[in-house]
Amino acid sequence: MDSDDSDASEASIRDCITVAVLPEDLAVACTDSCRPERCDEATVRPHEPPGVDHGTPGSFTPFEVPERETQIGALPEEPIDLFLRYVPYDVVDRWAEWTNAAGATAQRGPTRRWARSNDQEDPIYLFTRFMSRNRFQLLLRRLRIFDPADYPDTTTTPSQQRSRPQARKDRMPKVYRQVNEWSAHIQATGDSFYTPGSGLTVDEAMVRFTGRSVETTTVPNKPTPVGFKVWVLARKGYCLRWLWHVHGQGPYGLVPQARPARVDEEAKKAALTPTQRVVTTLVTLLPVAEYHVFLDNLFASVRLFRALRRQNIGATGTCRKDGGINDILVAEKEDEGKGIPWGQVHCIPTKDGQINQFTWKDNALVLFLTTVFRETSEVL
Fold first, then answer.
1. Each residue of 274-314: pLDDT tens digit?
2. d(CA 297, CA 368)
3. Of 265, 276, 268, which Cα lies nearest the Cα of 308?
4. pTM (2 decimals)?
5. Domain ranges of the chain
6. Strands, DSSP E only, in the chain?
7. Inter-residue contact 161 to 173 (CB < 8 Å)
8. β-pair type (313-318, 291-295)
9. Cα separation of 153 and 142, whole Å?
10. Measured distance CA(23)–CA(250) in Å, rounded
11. Which of the 8 DSSP states describes residue 249?
């Protein structure tokens, strides 16, 4: 993001679906409070010193989140009608127009001529009665869900794109702009009949793509290790909101946070990492309500949980040793809970009683943070 304060004040989310805000400048955003997590150094984890002060037993004040179930409105009677809500005829008409326009302006013609299929060619599968496999693959290869006139073809390789300075850093990357219109339509359509309950989760997701693109990211040890990375807010597997991830720059469309003055140490201690701000941004894109967000240790820290509580959002998640958790619990983790019986829970509230800090002995010792559950709460 530009260092000019006026630019920072003007950056905002245009609406609750389509996000168009500059990605953070990691050289400014990443300080001693975060550490690179991924190979492109655009995903960072929290790095906070262990807490020293703690409250007395029983001083934790839980943030009350009323339990709400998901509400699903009236759905179409036929599955095809539900499908057409997401892919309506007018959208398909535009796709067909753009696909034909791209073919007409291409330098080279199709690799093979199309022929009308015969419904007797393959009577086994219903779909192939109307379209052959080869024709489907040719259409899929040439399908355009964006206006090709807005995106002139370039022959530069991904390595050349990375080395070439970007003339417009305020623009969403091309590959995401090409799908953003349909992305917004999918989210808006889901909102028309799906109202989420109180329990949510935020995580990173991968859209498989092994072709050439400057925006592909590699995340080792994932089921889909190579592709486009997307930051997702979901409930029970249904994705509600998402943010694009820009290779080498981080999440795109974060809600700006005020930059602390150099002498304001307290404000610096409250600043979140760009990866943590994925959580605070995604929950602001939902209808206003009280939610309970579950996170993993890529996001969770004492600092983030305080910020979420100020937004009237409860949070629970696993934590790393450098997530600001109490030093007594960090010492237990250093020894991996030697001498602690399996299943035993140790709990220490923060001094202000806003966050409950746990260790739980499983096969290894697990660190937890929560602003919702007491040590006596039955979760499972």
1. 899 999 999 999 999 999 999 999 999 999 999 999 999 99
2. 9
3. 276
4. 0.77
5. 5-70+168-370, 79-153
6. 34-36, 44-46, 71-72, 194-195, 199-208, 217-218, 226-235, 238-246, 250-251, 291-295, 313-318, 345-349, 356-361, 365-370
7. no
8. parallel
9. 13
10. 6
11. T
- The gap between the terminal CA atoms of the chain, to the nearest Å, is 43
For residue 5 the two structure tokens come to 């304060």
What's the rounded Cα separation, in Å, for the pair 278 and 308?
12
- Residue 299: exposed, middle, or buried by beta-carbon count in 10 A (0-12, 13-18, 19+)? buried
Question: What is the rounded distance in angstroms from the CA atom of residue 186 to the CA atom of residue 190?
Answer: 6
Contacts of 73 (CB under 8 A, 6+ apart): 192, 193, 194, 195
Cα–Cα distance between 277 and 271 in angstroms, integer?
Answer: 9
Cα distances from 154 to residues 68, 143, 246, in angstroms, run 50, 18, 20
**Rg of the chain (C-alpha set):** 24
pLDDT in tens, 95-141: 988 888 887 665 555 555 556 666 555 555 566 677 888 888 888 88
DSSP 220: T
Tokens coding 288: 């206003």
Integer angstrom CA distances of residue 351 from 52, 60, 85, 190, 320: 9, 9, 51, 42, 20
- Please name the residues in contact with 144: beta carbons below 8 A apart, sequence gap of 6 or more: 95, 98, 99, 101, 102
Q: Retrieve residue 7's tokens.
A: 């630019």
Nearest to 280 by CA among 304, 247, 244: 304
